[in-house]
Design brief:
The complex is a heterodimer of chains A (94) and B (191). Chain A is α+β, with helices and mostly antiparallel strands and 94 residues long. Helix content of chain A is 54%, strand content 22%. The N and C termini of chain A lie close together (10 Å). Classes of the chains: A alpha+beta (94), B mainly alpha (191). Chain A: It comes from Chryseolinea lacunae.
Chain lengths: 94, 191
Amino acid sequence: MFKDLDPLLHAQLRLAVMSLLLSVESADFTFIREKTNSTAGNLSVQLDKLSEAGYISVEKTFKGKKPLTTCKVTKKGIKAFEEYVTALKQYIQK
Amino acid sequence: MKHEEETLTTQQSLAIITEMILNTKGNLKSNSIYFLLWGVVIALANLGMFALIMVDYPYPYIAWTAAFPAWLASFYIGYRQSKRERVMTHLDRVSIWMWVTFGVITFTLMAFGKLINYQLNPVILLVSAIPTLLSGIIIRFRPLIVGGILFWVAGIACFAVGGPWQFLIGAAAVTAGFIVPGVLLRSKKED
């Protein structure tokens, strides 16, 4: 019996964001956008989805006059990612 | 990156994960400025102390007051950098706290220097070996690793020779351990 892949993670951009955030302490919106090569609008929507699920925490502050969005993966997000990778492994070993 | 609702195959998923993780490698910023600043300050303080002892000046350790503006400069540079940084890796965090700990320890040693008869040089050189060597390992930069080892060697040498000569060893150690790697790091292109 195979585990279902978490639909929240099994999507290109959200998976990319989660993988990126897992390997750093924290990253800001521009950094994530550049590294994932995504558009600001799309990224913003996906970050909201991940944040609503509690997979990431999003902190909005100001850097001078510019708004600064800093994202960090949460414990829940790490657990979900680990489960996703475990499920992925089962599919590969099939 | 294309629209997110496309169905992913397991291979694509793995490719994304791998690519993103590789993307964050090499973000370790080279903080060569700190190595250069502290390298020069400590080297000059050591040489100053040696020179003042040689001319029988009663308070040779006054040379170390040079460290105070360097502290202020470090805080200022750190503040400026933190405003610029857009990402912080796990190793960046380890690195920052390692150097903060080192700073606190050396500061404590200096504050209580009198109790150990101002025999600070060998102790501080030995303690310097830890963050220098580990920084080299973290950013995979051999000159810093070598620098760390040289600090340890210099610490032993200071214990062995004692007297004013240990300040010359200190100046040489800090040149090899901070200044040289700092210059090399600066000339190296960021990964």
